[in-house]
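Sanity check

After download, print the first record. It should look like this:
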Amino acid sequence: MKLIEDWATQIRKAWSIRLAGVAGVIGAYFVMYPHELERLSGMLPEAYRDVFALVAGLLIFATASGARLVKQGRDE
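Expected structure tokens:
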């Protein structure tokens, strides 16, 4: 396994890394305050509560994966 050239600069610019960081912060918030997650899921109609976690996980995966597929400009 080889690292990409100038990885420290590239990792700060990569949108997939930024999106993963946001997802991590949101996940940590809900771990710290689980009652907020219960309140949020309580706002959904009961028919959609079963698939809420699945859809949220797929959305996070799709946005981070999509960000890796899009060519990102270099600010040099």
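If your output differs, re-run the checksum step. Summary of this record's structure: The chain has a mean pLDDT of 82.
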